[in-house]
Amino acid sequence: MKHIHILAFALAASVGSFALADEATSSDPIIAPGQQTDAWLNAQSKGTMASENIQAAKGIQRDKAAERFMKTYDYAIKESYYGDNFKPGK
């Protein structure tokens, strides 16, 4: 139950963080860096926010996903990426 309260607080704070800066008041909660992320990761690992609807992949979907994964082994990993001229946004 404690995790649900923490998650609810973090979610409420994240919704409140979308308010304009001039609308913020001193009563708005201050969220520590990483607190929202921790709440979401905890909810994910504990399943507290999980859907009640079963979302299973069909056999053909699983086979195609496995096939795509296995194709990644067809390409060698480069020893170094130095000098590849990686640039942001490309």
UniProtKB/TrEMBL annotation:
Keyword Signal: yes
Keyword Signal: yes
Record keywords, A-Z: Signal
InterPro entries, per the entry: DUF3613
Protein's name according to its UniProt entry: DUF3613 domain-containing protein
Lineage: Bacteria, Pseudomonadati, Pseudomonadota, Gammaproteobacteria, Moraxellales
Pfam families for this protein: DUF3613
Top-level taxon: Bacteria
Signal sequence, renumbered to the chain: 1-21
